[in-house]
Amino acid sequence: MTLYVASYLMISRFWKAKEWVLDVFLVSGMIVCFVGITDYFRMDVLNLHKYIAHEEWDIFTSTIGNINMYTGYVALILGASAAWFAIAKSRIRVIWCYLCMVISFFAIILGRSDNAYLALAALFGFLPFLLFRSKTGMKRYLLMLATFGTVVLCIIQMNQAYKDTVIGLDSLFQTLAEFNGFLYVVAGLWAIYAAVYILIKKSRNKNDEVGPVVMYGWAGLLILSVLVLGFLLFDANVAGNAARYGSLGNYLVFDDSWGTGRGYIWRKSMELYKEFTPMHKLFGHGPDTFGILTVTKIGEEMPQRFENAHNEYLQYFMTIGLTGLIAYVVFLGSAIYCMCKNVKTKPYIIGCCFAVICYMTQAVVNISVVIVTPMMWLLLSVGMASGKKRCDE
């Protein structure tokens, strides 16, 4: 963490930002995604599986490692490419970012980790607050939605055609695959995009700006979605009606088995926190000492060895305390706000911004590792370096 912060200070304060740096990140990211996609087809193009036990082949992929780490990395690529595509003006830039976005859509789905849902939700949920200010932004957003649906549809067809070769989907994406009407949903998305595109093109009003009504409407829709989710959680956990939700009950019912044991370690973490001294509650048990804490306190009862909370924020809450967690979240939030202020002057900053947003969202169920987290800090540093003059004003 000390090295992360030191790197951030040096880059954000002294480096002269260049757009091509983000292109280098996307090019290298495409290699990571390509290897991950081929691993889903069990091709093992880099011949790395010979170093892994056969029964664990399917949970290690690409050049990253565990599928949770892999999709965490792809979330950075997805956030950067999709957001940059959404506001890019150059035709070459639009095509390049669109291709990167499509490939990262394939990669993050075929990664088969549940943290992908959170990254996708953050992308599609928060991007409209920037895009729905213009007609072009609305068109790009609808194109993104239709493209994502098409990617899912292609994956469903590939799974059927190569069912004896591929690893196979599970969880929510498998639910989509079993939904017979999904083809019509995708067709509907393309129809809506085509209709909006034609209406905007034939409109006599050539002003690209859109009033705040659309953005307020989207904010209302998000609030309504949160309320509905809250009701579903209450109904499934408190009211005891989990059975009515079928396979979705695996996500709605929060118990010890939730999230492959995350429910258990999250519950035990809070119990351990209650036993902390006031000083430890404020400043934590110590950086990277979560494993020591669990082994010494609950080692005998743990169903498996937990050396990490599998929630980056809970991990910091336990190890650097309430003070450290608040400082970390406020720092990231202020950095995102600062980057958003500079999007109009340097559009590529939006790629850095949404890469960080996607990372922050998936971190709720993922861990901070030195394979992925330094890249998030690097993109954050680049974004802040690009807009440092206006942020300092």
TrEMBL record:
It holds the Pfam family Wzy_C. Residues 191-329 form the O-antigen ligase-related domain. Keywords: Ligase, Membrane, Transmembrane, Transmembrane helix. InterPro entries: O-antigen_ligase-rel_domated, WaaL-like. The chain crosses the membrane at residues 20-41, 67-87, 94-110, 116-134, 141-162, 182-200, 212-234, 313-336, 348-380. GO terms for molecular function: ligase activity. It is found in: Membrane. The keyword Ligase applies. Coiled coil: none annotated. The keyword Cell membrane does not apply. It is a multi-pass membrane protein. Its main location: membrane. This is O-antigen ligase family protein. It comes from Lacrimispora xylanolytica.
